[in-house]
Amino acid sequence: MDVYEGKAKKIIPLDDGKVIMEFKDDATAFDGDKKAQFRGKGWLNAQISAHLFRVLEENGVKTHFIGIAGDNRLIVERLKMYPLEVVVRNVVAGSLKKRLPLEEGTELPEPIVELYYKDDSLHDPMINHHHARVLGIGEVELEEMERIALRVNEILREYFKERGIILVDFKLEFGKNPRGEIVLGDEISPDTCRFWDAETKESLDKDVFRFDKGDLISAYEKLYERITGEVPARR
């Protein structure tokens, strides 16, 4: 079976319906125009994702997560992935600043859910339900993904709030398992979310790399320690 290598992960299929998801130390931004490597980043993203998948599973959200298969590897259920990114926004930041006349940091009166078509050659454009249906994704499937995304937001927003962190926004990906269920896939990490310290508004995510805000690994380690209560074992 072919190994798929993306910008931040390797996907290694197994013969038993499972997949190894290997997190790399690479960091990219701005459609790959900015690149670097940070020793320990893959370990941190793998461990943070595993921890958050467990939190969601404990609260009734089905995910593809099975277990940790090594320092920077997770073992997950193989899914037939949808070519969509489902983004949930709680606070104005990133590209939303260009679409709404609101200041960065403004808390939204309700979460905004956005859909993006996963295609690097098109730069992952934002789409709506009409576009998605043309691409063969049914309305019932779209509504289920959005329902799960909002439930994930409800769980994680409160979880992070209790730890002094603002969940600004995040990206999710979904797939169908062999039983025909739509479940959460991919990762939940500081590569795919925006986290701000509730007091200082310090970024604890990939924006540190994007906008040269400081040391990326230190930010990821701080997030790891906040959510797990443990000092990171390695860099």
TrEMBL record:
Q: Which GO terms describe its biological process?
A: 'de novo' IMP biosynthetic process; cobalamin biosynthetic process
Q: Please state the Enzyme Commission number of this protein.
A: 6.3.2.6
What's the catalysed reaction?
A: 5-amino-1-(5-phospho-D-ribosyl)imidazole-4-carboxylate + L-aspartate + ATP = (2S)-2-[5-amino-1-(5-phospho-beta-D-ribosyl)imidazole-4-carboxamido]succinate + ADP + phosphate + 2 H(+)
Q: Where is the signal peptide?
A: none
One of the Pfam families matching this protein, by short name: SAICAR_synt
Pathway, per record = Purine metabolism; IMP biosynthesis via de novo pathway; 5-amino-1-(5-phospho-D-ribosyl)imidazole-4-carboxamide from 5-amino-1-(5-phospho-D-ribosyl)imidazole-4-carboxylate: step 1/2
Residue span, SAICAR synthetase/ADE2 N-terminal domain: 3-226
Enzyme superclass (EC): ligase
Keyword terms? ATP-binding, Ligase, Nucleotide-binding, Purine biosynthesis
Q: Which residues form a coiled coil?
A: none
The Gene Ontology terms for molecular function here are: ATP binding; phosphoribosylaminoimidazolesuccinocarboxamide synthase activity
Q: Which family does it belong to?
A: Belongs to the SAICAR synthetase family.
PANTHER family on file: MULTIFUNCTIONAL PROTEIN ADE2, SI:DKEY-6E2.2
**Descriptive protein name:** Phosphoribosylaminoimidazole-succinocarboxamide synthase
